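FIELD: query
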Amino acid sequence: MSRDERDEWLGSFLTQMEVSRLESVSVLVSSRRALGLVALLESWHSHVVRISGELDLPGSDRTAWGAYDLIAALALRSLLARGLENAEPSSLGGFKRALNDVDSRFREFTEYDESGVVRRIDSEGRPSDEWWWDRIPSSGPIRREIEQINHSSDSGHD
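FIELD: result
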């Protein structure tokens, strides 16, 4: 997805003034780095678009993302949740609509992770209300790798 496409998508939910205001809400992503709320939203959007675009790729495609790329995407979504707690609620209308759009896209191509393998891979002890940690793609390279990881852990060969 090009920068223009991302800008067009974001612009359908937020004005430039709202983007500037929300980008000032920063979230610590490491001990030395913080990202603005809008940058996190754009990253979550890009990850969801990429993952959904790879659902039909064969296992032999080495450019396809794997289970740990899904974990990175879900960690972005958790950072967004943390950032929302720090934002002024009255300024979040368009932002929440944009976030709901991405979350809906994510739900469309994922299903409930009955085995809980994604939370085990992550091992961060995420809050139970972070529903995205309980979702896995219904098909594709990420799904196949998650099934392999789950099978390996079930067999005791982790």
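FIELD: remark
The longest strand covers residues 26-30.
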